[in-house]
Amino acid sequence: MHTSTARRGSGVRRGAGLLLGAALAATALAAPQATAASNGPTLPAPTGSHQVGTVSLHLVDPARRDPWVAARQHRELMVSVRYPARDADRYPLTPQMLPGEAAGFDALNNFTGVPKGRVDWSATRSHAHEGAPVDRRGGPLPVVLYEPGTLDPRSLGTTLADDLASHGFVVVTIDHTYDASAVQFPGGRVERSVLPSEFAATKGEPAAITALLEKVMTVNIADTRFVLDQVDALAAGHDPDAEHRPLPRGLVGALDPHRVGMFGQSSGGMAALETMHEDPRITAGADLDGVLAYEQGDHTPGNPFPVATAGLKRPFLLMGMDGDNHHTVPSWGQLWNNSRGWHRDLTLRGGQHASFTDAESLLPQIARQLGLPASTVRENVGSTDPGQAVAAESAYLTAFFDQWLRGGSGDGLFDGPSPRFPVIDYVR
């Protein structure tokens, strides 16, 4: 979810208690009657040695009714699988967002100062080739799950997902239907978020808001555990796609279900560590600026998640915007003090909440295209150079998962401050 100081979500700021306020504010704004920008912004190229392939999967959980829409007898999800590929140039590059996803995203866009109806969010291409064969020359591949923030689509984490895949990981990105701004299913059906109406129904009552946020997290963790089941199915040689559409050559059986990590931004980071607490299949987790408490402010004590009070024995990484670390965010401090396993805390100097999404790269380009003031970029993604921010985030995530899923050294990045990435503060 995107946000400002007054309208919070996973864009600029987000106290957990205000995550949904942006959704309500967004629905009250009319889109300007202007022509959308025709030349889409670009995403940074992956830094690894592998080409990247991708396939989307339609997953149906027959054991659950949809918790948001009673008429849906089964819970349906869309995920994307990113993976190291070979001979990929013969396969088309996929868009970052499909048209239905892009329209829903624009309708709920509340990036501060970015007008609706002016950006063609479907015009940006990813660096992943649709359906390319899997490069299995290194044997079974470690798996990393990615979860976006509340209201955000899985595609808003494309840069980091593509980069990890280029370094030899299989990355499964998850859309939570009726939470994400819009989810497009095979055949073109689009399901939009119900959270704006759910938030409006709370009438601003604190207890009702907390209950809604707890439901969001409960549903998302259940979705994630179901996706883990489908990772197991793929690893065992099964095709979990509901329509049984052809899978890329080499994907079935390529995943290693015993080496699984997870990361997410905002509420996705919360879900990554809480799922890790609840499900032993997650070996290592990274939280990108997600507070682990149902509180309205990042720095407000109280209402911690179970993972914060219980702590973790397995490795985790905290990456915060400027000013957020385990000394200033009470729920992070609780997790830090209660955990007996390996853990590190990093801060992106000059970063904002949305710096850990594709907004870091996209918004400076959009601002130039639309002639928006420099303050628009600063309010959404901070003052850090976008290229340096993305390079640092990619390097630290790759090093973290390499260390804990492949037995690597961590590239020395977790031993102390690195002169290679001066925008990252190492928090002791």
Automatic annotation (TrEMBL):
Keyword Magnesium on entry: no
Keyword set, alphabetical order: Hydrolase, Lipid degradation, Lipid metabolism, Signal
Xref: InterPro entries: AB_hydrolase_fold
Keyword check for Hydrolase: yes
Protein name: Hydrolase
Signal peptide (from-to): 1-30
GO terms, molecular function: hydrolase activity
